């Protein structure tokens, strides 16, 4: 006789399968915010460390040169060639600059390097320090973050060079080039120094406005070039105390322009005085947004980020205040800042305008709270 065994194993029913899927979905919903929080904590720590290293580079620069790096010459374009360098393709060149040629004691030099301008290109070795170097502080400190080779590149090339230490990982990656407009071919830079100059970008208005020089990083030129002043800032000029004065912070950006670039995030390392690496210290920082941050209405880039002045709009301006000259960040509660003593702290978005302005000035004499 043959014995037959009947298997009692069966597959999942549809209801059981749906229950399992629902449980997995609930677990994912519970775990995802925790994973994102851990990732943001790591990114914020990396961002803070970037600022720490940049602040230390500025200290080493000061020790070697006897002054802080500058904001560059008084016009944004003074370190950028007047024509595209032949070695850079048109697809990686968004805008021509305005390098200045001048005679220095009988020698023809220019605002970027120590040789004459030949065929619209600066020749010679790039000036490493102010007041001769027209490019601002990010370019000037390159040797102090082990980027001497990057600084030695011919004119215009540094704008297309990726330098990860200048990028906040919460916001974007480091190995890409901007895709549109004046930023075409440029690379990201997420940090800036406080600036108190006028709304206007006119160099003569800037030089004649006393508040231009209230911060640590200020514009500077060799007077022999075109009569503009050299304005060195030294550690002893920080009379408010280095632990009470902001040296660097994060830039405000629109999230939909992180990869494309924008007028205040385009030439970056090749810029002289410009919102690329200088942001106003007399308005509070804001979280990156495509909205009017005070009404929460979605607005276009032409409405909350139009070129090109150092706007100080009231919060009530409609459809939005113009935000492109402000500090800010992609972090939720505030931005990282490097103080002049090299420490890194968080400035909350809820900080008052008065306290933030006092923190950004090197010698106003006002007392600031320890918790900001």
Give an overview of the whole structure.
The protein is of the alpha+beta class. The protein is 22% helix and 11% strand. It has 7 helices and 11 strands. It has a 5-stranded mixed sheet. The longest helix is centred in the N-terminal third of the chain and has 52 residues, at 14-65.
- What is the number of helices? 7
Q: Determine Rg (CA atoms, Å).
A: 25 Å
Strand order in the largest sheet: 7-5-6-10-11
Roughly how much helix do the residues carry, as a percent range?
10-25%
> Largest beta sheet, briefly?
5 strands, mixed
Beta-strand percentage range: 5-15%
Secondary structure class reads alpha+beta
Helix-strand string: HEEEEHHEHHEEEHEEEH
How many β-strands, per DSSP?
Answer: 11
Termini gap: 89 Å
The overall pLDDT average reads 94
Low-confidence stretches: none
How would you describe the shape?
A: globular
Q: In short, what is this structure?
A:
The protein has helices at 14-65, 137-140, 148-151, 203-207, 223-226, 301-304, 353-360; strands at 101-104, 107-110, 117-118, 121-122, 191-195, 246-250, 278-280, 286-287, 328-329, 334-339, 344-348. It is α+β, with helices and mostly antiparallel strands and 372 residues long.
Which features would summarize this protein structure in a list?
372 residues, alpha+beta
How is the secondary structure organized here?
Layout: H1 14-65, E1 101-104, E2 107-110, E3 117-118, E4 121-122, H2 137-140, H3 148-151, E5 191-195, H4 203-207, H5 223-226, E6 246-250, E7 278-280, E8 286-287, H6 301-304, E9 328-329, E10 334-339, E11 344-348, H7 353-360
Parallel strand pairs: 5-7, 8-9
Antiparallel strand pairs: 1-2, 3-4, 5-6, 6-10, 10-11
């Amino acid at each position: 006789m043959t014995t037959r065994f009947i298997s009692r194993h069966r597959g999942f029913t549809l209801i059981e399968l749906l229950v399992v899927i629902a449980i997995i979905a609930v677990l994912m919903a519970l775990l995802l915010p925790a994973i994102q929080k851990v990732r943001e904590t790591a990114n914020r720590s990396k961002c803070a460390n970037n600022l720490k290293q940049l602040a230390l580079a500025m200290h080493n620069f000061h020790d070697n040169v006897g002054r802080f790096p500058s904001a560059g010459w008084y016009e944004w374009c003074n370190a950028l060639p007047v024509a595209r360098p032949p070695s850079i393709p048109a697809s990686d060149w968004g805008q021509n600059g305005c390098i200045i040629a001048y005679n220095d004691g009988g020698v023809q030099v220019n605002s970027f390097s120590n040789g004459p301008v030949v065929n619209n290109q600066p020749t010679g070795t790039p000036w490493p320090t102010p007041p001769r170097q027209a490019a601002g502080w990010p370019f000037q400190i390159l040797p102090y973050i082990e980027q001497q080779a990057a600084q030695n590149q011919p004119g215009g090339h540094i704008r297309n060079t990726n330098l990860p230490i200048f990028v906040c990982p919460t916001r974007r990656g480091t190995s890409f080039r901007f895709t549109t407009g004046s930023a075409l071919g440029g690379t990201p830079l997420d940090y800036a120094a406080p600036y108190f100059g006028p709304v206007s970008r006119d160099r003569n208005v800037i030089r004649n406005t006393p508040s231009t020089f209230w911060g640590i990083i200020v514009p500077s030129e060799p007077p022999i070039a075109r009569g503009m002043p050299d304005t060195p800032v030294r550690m002893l000029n920080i009379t408010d105390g280095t632990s009470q004065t902001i040296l660097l912070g994060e830039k405000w950006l629109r999230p939909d322009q992180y990869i494309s670039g924008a007028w205040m995030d385009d030439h970056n390392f090749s810029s002289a005085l410009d919102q690329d690496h200088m942001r106003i210290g007399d308005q509070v920082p804001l979280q990156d947004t495509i909205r009017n941050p005070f009404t929460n209405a979605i607005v276009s880039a032409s409405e909350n980020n139009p070129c090109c002045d150092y706007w100080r709009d009231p919060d009530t301006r409609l459809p939005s205040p113009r935000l492109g000259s402000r500090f800010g960040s992609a972090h939720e509660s505030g931005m990282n800042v490097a103080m002049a003593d090299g420490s890194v702290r968080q400035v909350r978005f809820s900080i008052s305008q008065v306290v933030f302005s006092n923190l950004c000035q090197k010698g106003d004499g006002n007392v600031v709270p320890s918790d900001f």
